[in-house]
Amino acid sequence: MKEKDSCEIYCYDEPKVRKVQHALEGQNIQGMIKMFKVLADETRMKIAFALCEEDELCVCDVANIIGSSMATASHHLRTLKQLGLAKYRKEGKLVFYSLEDDHVRQLVQLASTHSRELITNGK
Protein backbone atom coordinates (compact mmCIF):
# COMPACT_ATOMS: atom_id res chain seq x y z
CA MET A 1 0.00 0.00 0.00
CA LYS A 2 1.31 3.42 -0.97
CA GLU A 3 2.00 5.80 1.91
CA LYS A 4 0.27 9.18 1.64
CA ASP A 5 2.63 12.13 1.55
CA SER A 6 0.13 14.81 2.55
CA CYS A 7 -2.08 15.54 5.53
CA GLU A 8 -5.35 13.66 5.68
CA ILE A 9 -7.01 16.48 7.64
CA TYR A 10 -6.62 20.25 7.42
CA CYS A 11 -5.22 21.94 10.51
CA TYR A 12 -2.27 24.23 11.12
CA ASP A 13 -0.14 25.64 13.90
CA GLU A 14 -1.16 29.31 13.86
CA PRO A 15 1.83 30.69 15.85
CA LYS A 16 4.33 28.87 13.59
CA VAL A 17 2.53 30.03 10.47
CA ARG A 18 2.49 33.68 11.61
CA LYS A 19 6.16 33.52 12.65
CA VAL A 20 7.27 32.16 9.27
CA GLN A 21 5.01 34.55 7.33
CA HIS A 22 6.56 37.45 9.25
CA ALA A 23 10.06 36.14 8.53
CA LEU A 24 9.20 35.87 4.81
CA GLU A 25 8.13 39.52 4.70
CA GLY A 26 11.70 40.58 5.50
CA GLN A 27 13.29 38.46 2.79
CA ASN A 28 14.29 39.40 -0.74
CA ILE A 29 12.73 36.30 -2.28
CA GLN A 30 13.03 37.68 -5.84
CA GLY A 31 16.76 38.23 -5.30
CA MET A 32 17.15 34.66 -4.07
CA ILE A 33 15.24 33.36 -7.09
CA LYS A 34 17.48 35.31 -9.46
CA MET A 35 20.59 33.92 -7.78
CA PHE A 36 19.41 30.32 -8.11
CA LYS A 37 18.27 30.87 -11.70
CA VAL A 38 21.72 32.16 -12.61
CA LEU A 39 23.39 29.17 -10.97
CA ALA A 40 20.86 26.76 -12.53
CA ASP A 41 22.68 27.18 -15.86
CA GLU A 42 25.20 24.37 -16.38
CA THR A 43 27.93 26.62 -17.77
CA ARG A 44 27.61 29.22 -15.01
CA MET A 45 27.61 26.52 -12.32
CA LYS A 46 30.81 25.10 -13.83
CA ILE A 47 32.34 28.58 -13.75
CA ALA A 48 31.24 29.14 -10.15
CA PHE A 49 32.68 25.75 -9.18
CA ALA A 50 35.94 26.58 -10.96
CA LEU A 51 36.11 29.83 -9.00
CA CYS A 52 35.71 27.81 -5.81
CA GLU A 53 38.68 25.69 -6.81
CA GLU A 54 40.83 28.70 -7.75
CA ASP A 55 40.34 32.04 -6.04
CA GLU A 56 40.82 33.91 -9.30
CA LEU A 57 40.83 32.98 -12.99
CA CYS A 58 41.28 35.06 -16.12
CA VAL A 59 38.66 34.89 -18.85
CA CYS A 60 41.06 32.80 -20.98
CA ASP A 61 41.40 30.23 -18.18
CA VAL A 62 37.61 30.05 -17.76
CA ALA A 63 37.09 29.59 -21.52
CA ASN A 64 39.52 26.67 -21.52
CA ILE A 65 38.05 25.10 -18.39
CA ILE A 66 34.49 25.10 -19.77
CA GLY A 67 35.55 24.40 -23.37
CA SER A 68 34.07 27.54 -24.87
CA SER A 69 35.06 30.65 -26.75
CA MET A 70 36.29 33.69 -24.87
CA ALA A 71 33.09 35.51 -25.89
CA THR A 72 30.91 32.81 -24.32
CA ALA A 73 33.00 32.72 -21.16
CA SER A 74 32.86 36.52 -20.92
CA HIS A 75 29.09 36.51 -21.37
CA HIS A 76 28.58 34.03 -18.52
CA LEU A 77 31.09 35.78 -16.26
CA ARG A 78 29.37 39.11 -16.92
CA THR A 79 26.02 37.54 -15.96
CA LEU A 80 27.49 36.26 -12.69
CA LYS A 81 28.91 39.74 -12.04
CA GLN A 82 25.66 41.55 -12.82
CA LEU A 83 23.84 39.47 -10.24
CA GLY A 84 26.46 40.05 -7.57
CA LEU A 85 27.94 36.55 -7.59
CA ALA A 86 31.32 37.44 -9.13
CA LYS A 87 33.64 40.41 -9.40
CA TYR A 88 36.57 41.23 -11.65
CA ARG A 89 39.76 43.18 -11.82
CA LYS A 90 41.76 44.21 -14.82
CA GLU A 91 45.51 43.74 -14.99
CA GLY A 92 46.97 45.12 -18.18
CA LYS A 93 45.19 43.32 -21.01
CA LEU A 94 43.89 40.51 -18.80
CA VAL A 95 40.65 40.40 -16.82
CA PHE A 96 40.53 38.22 -13.70
CA TYR A 97 37.30 37.05 -12.11
CA SER A 98 36.65 35.78 -8.60
CA LEU A 99 33.58 35.04 -6.54
CA GLU A 100 31.99 38.10 -4.94
CA ASP A 101 32.26 36.75 -1.39
CA ASP A 102 32.44 33.65 0.74
CA HIS A 103 28.65 33.25 0.79
CA VAL A 104 28.68 32.37 -2.90
CA ARG A 105 31.56 29.94 -2.35
CA GLN A 106 29.69 28.26 0.52
CA LEU A 107 26.52 27.97 -1.57
CA VAL A 108 28.33 26.29 -4.47
CA GLN A 109 30.35 24.01 -2.19
CA LEU A 110 27.22 23.02 -0.26
CA ALA A 111 25.41 22.19 -3.51
CA SER A 112 28.40 20.12 -4.62
CA THR A 113 28.55 18.20 -1.34
CA HIS A 114 24.81 17.58 -1.30
CA SER A 115 24.73 16.38 -4.92
CA ARG A 116 27.57 13.90 -4.20
CA GLU A 117 25.64 12.61 -1.16
CA LEU A 118 22.53 12.11 -3.30
CA ILE A 119 24.55 10.00 -5.74
CA THR A 120 26.11 8.00 -2.91
CA ASN A 121 22.68 7.35 -1.40
CA GLY A 122 21.24 6.31 -4.77
CA LYS A 123 18.86 9.23 -5.20
UniProtKB/TrEMBL annotation:
Database matches in CDD domains: HTH_ARSR
Cited InterPro entries: ArsR-like_HTH, ArsR_HTH, HTH_ArsR_DNA-bd_dom, Metal_resp_trans_reg, WH-like_DNA-bd_sf, WH_DNA-bd_sf
NCBIfam families: HTH_metalloreg
Name the UniProt record assigns to this protein: ArsR/SmtB family transcription factor
Native source organism of the sequence: Paenibacillus chartarius
Keyword entries, A-Z: Cadmium resistance, DNA-binding, Transcription, Transcription regulation
Source superkingdom: Bacteria
UniProt cross-references to Gene3D superfamilies, sorted A to Z: Winged helix-like DNA-binding domain superfamily/Winged helix DNA-binding domain
Domain HTH arsR-type: 24-119
Pfam family, any one: HTH_5
Record bears the keyword DNA-binding: yes
